[in-house]
Design a protein that fits this description.
- The structure is a homodimer of 310-residue chains.
- The first copy, chain A, has 310 residues and is an alpha/beta fold.
- Helices cover 42% and strands 15% of the residues of chain A.
- Chain A has helices at residues 13-19, 27-38, 62-68, 84-92, 106-113, 117-133, 156-169, 185-196, 215-224, 252-261, 270-284, 291-300, and strands at residues 8-11, 44-49, 76-80, 97-103, 137-143, 147-148, 152-153, 173-178, 204-208, 229-232.
- An 8-stranded parallel sheet of chain A has the order 1-10-9-8-5-4-3-2. Chain A has a two-stranded antiparallel sheet with strand order 6-7.
Chain lengths: 310, 310
Amino acid sequence: MKLPTKVTIKEVGPRDGLQNESKFIDTKDKIEWINRLSKTGLSYIEVSSFVHPKWIPQLADSEEVLKSIQKKPGVTYAALVPNIRGLERALNCQVDEISVFMSASEGHNKQNINKTIDETFPVLKEVVDEAKKANVKVRGYVSTVIACPYDGLVAPKQVLKVADRLFDMGVYEVSLGDTIGVGVPTQVESLLETLLKHFPPNLLAMHFHDTRGTALANVLKSLEMGITTFDSSTGGLGGCPYAKGASGNVATEDLNYMLSAMHIETGINPEALIDSAFFMEEKIGKILISKQMEIARNERSGNLDNARTV
Amino acid sequence: MKLPTKVTIKEVGPRDGLQNESKFIDTKDKIEWINRLSKTGLSYIEVSSFVHPKWIPQLADSEEVLKSIQKKPGVTYAALVPNIRGLERALNCQVDEISVFMSASEGHNKQNINKTIDETFPVLKEVVDEAKKANVKVRGYVSTVIACPYDGLVAPKQVLKVADRLFDMGVYEVSLGDTIGVGVPTQVESLLETLLKHFPPNLLAMHFHDTRGTALANVLKSLEMGITTFDSSTGGLGGCPYAKGASGNVATEDLNYMLSAMHIETGINPEALIDSAFFMEEKIGKILISKQMEIARNERSGNLDNARTV
């Protein structure tokens, strides 16, 4: 099996993770968490969202967060931006980079953005144009690339169409999101086969939610197909707000374990990463579900792996 | 990617799962659970162990369990057997099939069986010989095929040596266990490359513990290499007894989800499987950690997947 020697992990916990948690985390704790994440070796952190606080009250403090974090040289601090108003707010905080987002399926796009896919492009184009004028790079997210909670399975050709328009606008990378975490490796393969006919693998990132436990298998398939950028959340944050233990993004520390154990370089210090996960666990006040955190809990309590077993 | 069209899942929850749980489950509940598992479409259930109750008190009722379950035609009911005394007890209960076990590493073998690897072979040979006389098939487990908690990494050649001896004795299949759940797909590939030079893939099964979340990625790699038999536990049972949520075997329902979504036939009814997992969760009195159970909990409580997200 041919695998890349180096992978970039883009940490989206402070944005995708926290926006899906019911609890509002104190601004000072968000700042401290991002400062800790900055010291793990991560090179990219999506720190917040400039979606209107009416929609995502959990991230209503995005300005203060972005202005107050200690930026470490070499780390990109990005934020999600839905429209020109959001961009203005983000630029006002000296954001390094922004992300725009839309869905590959009409149903989810309508629900999430309240526009059809065709109506969404001009809104994003305006954002991308203005960001470029400000010399700020733009990343594009495409949601529901495997399936949509409203429309069912999504055809790879539909994802291609949306990704193509985003690249035309000038985004430097498209992150392909299995938003509801239903995908399996055969679907990832079909999707990437379609997209890699048109774009080189270094322009694509994969964004897996681990709702059904298939995220790392999907990462493996993506790696085999040449993908070298993956999104994840420390502590696997981002579950359904009302369900204990529901899965959000694939956990950064679990992704990092698999990659490192396969001798793929990520640049991340696993101990620092776990410590930052426990920091947020304490602030969020619920048990975070990642395998590496579980192992750390066992080690701290003096339990070893179950050695007496087949 | 070339995948098999059909896979056999061997359910080891009543044995490998329950032996690693601290709580003794009432015999009548074990029986009821196995009866429910029998109705899911599973074709193979390892129902208990005839290891001396001094070592595994959780399964001290193996005779009563095996004698009292309602055997469904077409389902194989197997039990783990450590030695000739255990075999006698198992045969006395009309077991369909037995499993013998040893480790690929000296450290774990010594700890688990209190013998060196070379000292173990004659003990198992005696069991296999007697089982064959009774027309009972024997499956062989090899533990610590990737790494050992005492000896560190285990060389594929060492696994090959042990598997080869087991086949020589007359086992019909060898199940390769990543006992401590550290393995990643590159290691699975190295291991299988070595073994598949000597044995066809239909003689090998993979037995992954999901301690680090890599089990399904390892399953994917095994499938790509032609493996068609996998062990798993309903509810992901079998964690470290003192640590809430610690991972045991890969959960049958999560394995079955990935396989089914990839259009690989397993013959298993997912709803019946989940129901049997919730039955055992109630009896065991702790939250079982599998993704499919989490989804079912959300659906039952009226929560949908987090649709408003990137």
